[in-house]
Design goal:
Length: 73
């Protein structure tokens, strides 16, 4: 993961690829993804039992960030 101060800064990066523009998201959105149950409930005694539910929450959160982040079938 790379962090940039702006979309323009990201596009000026030497490793930038034109077809990845849709993958640029604000840090706030990534912070939301890391704030879901998959990451915040790890110490719960039933964490493993609910892991499928937590992964589904992750998929929904990331898919909402745009087409670049949607899971392929």
């Amino acid at each position: 993961m790379n962090l940039f101060r702006s979309e323009e800064h990201a596009k000026n990066w030497k490793g930038y690829k034109d077809n990845t523009e849709a993958g640029i998201v604000p840090v706030e959105n990534l912070a939301q993804a890391f704030g879901i149950s998959l990451f915040t409930r790890r110490l719960d005694p039933d964490y493993v039992a609910k892991l499928g539910e937590y992964v589904q929450e992750l998929v929904q959160t990331v898919s909402g960030m745009g087409p670049f982040w949607q899971m392929g079938t």
